[in-house]
Amino acid sequence: MKVLIPVAGIGSKLRPHTHTQPKALVPVAGKPILSHIVDNLIEAGMREFIFIVGYLGDKVEEYIHSNYPGIIKHFIIQEPREGTGHAVWLARHLVNPGDELVIALGDTIFDVNLREVLSSETSALAVKRVDDPRTFGVAELDEDGFIRHVRRNRLSRNPTWHWSGCTRSGSRRNSSRHSTRSSTATSGRRVNII
Q1: Distance CA 188, CA 194 (A)
Q2: pLDDT of 116
Q3: Within a domain: residue 118?
Q4: Is 52 within 8 Å of 82 (Cβ atoms)?
Q5: Longest dimension (CA), the chain
Q6: Which of 32, 70, 110, 130 is the most buried (most CB within 10 A)?
Q7: 127 with 191: CB under 8 angstroms?
Q8: Which of 80, 109, 138 is the last residue of a domain?
Q9: pTM of this prediction?
Q10: Pairwise CA distance, residues 186 & 127, whole Å
Q11: 104, 128: one domain
Q12: Are 87 and 135 contained in the same domain?
């Protein structure tokens, strides 16, 4: 299983902290955001990481090389920065058909039992209920907890969920429930609400 972590963003909402360091390296509770994420994934058994870097990406690369010498690491420069879907697309040559892939957003700390999520027989997308979904992507769930539709930056009927930063793609079994129509429509994937 491989892990893809997009960390190319400028972090404009965290200015002035991100004038001299990337958002993923801003410290929270004594260590950079990225360390919280990578440490949790390593603890869950992950060993191969793909980092999509951009703004101050050399600092991310230096930090990962210095602090995580025991992992397999790849760095891809995202230029121009065209969003998360583009970041995933850039890594296509490192992910083979049939590979399982975890996508963890490089600015989102999550507290979840990753071993449980990763051992699931179905793909998973972590989402979080928010009061005002207008600035987030919205996942509409059916009564069984499956995603029926995903929209970006639009109001939606309740329940409203926001992608909170960790997804696992790929399946140990073949099923039409695991197909993806496009980068923004993930119909039929089981959601583990975190």
Answers
A1: 18
A2: 81
A3: no
A4: no
A5: 48
A6: 32
A7: yes
A8: 109
A9: 0.73
A10: 13
A11: no
A12: no
Placement of tokens 């209920």 in the chain: 129
Q: H or E segment at 116?
A: helix 114-118
The 3-state DSSP class for residue 118 equals helix
Dig out the tokens for 15 from the structure. Answer: 């200015």
pLDDT tens digit sequence for 44-91? 999 999 999 998 889 999 999 999 999 999 999 998 888 888 888 899
Q: Which residues contact 96 (CB under 8 A, 6 or more apart)?
A: none
- 115 found inside a domain: no
141-146, long-range: CB within 8 Å, 24+ apart, which pairs?
A: 141/191, 145/190, 145/191, 145/193, 146/177, 146/188, 146/189, 146/190, 146/191
Residue 30: which domain range?
1-109
The strand pair at 48-53 and 2-7 is best described as: parallel
Residue 67 and residue 65: Cα distance in Å, rounded?
A: 6
Query: Is there a single domain that holds both residue 86 and residue 45?
Result: yes
Q: Which residue from 178, 183, 177, 142 is spatially nearest to 161, judged by alpha carbons? A: 142
Q: Residue 97: which CATH number?
A: 3.90.550.10
- Token couple for 54: 């951009």
pLDDT tens for each residue of 158-194: 443 444 444 444 443 332 222 222 223 333 333 333 2
Angle at 39 between CA 35 and CA 44, to 5 degrees: 155
Residue with tokens 């995603």: 147
Final residue in a domain of this structure, among 109, 143, 170: 109
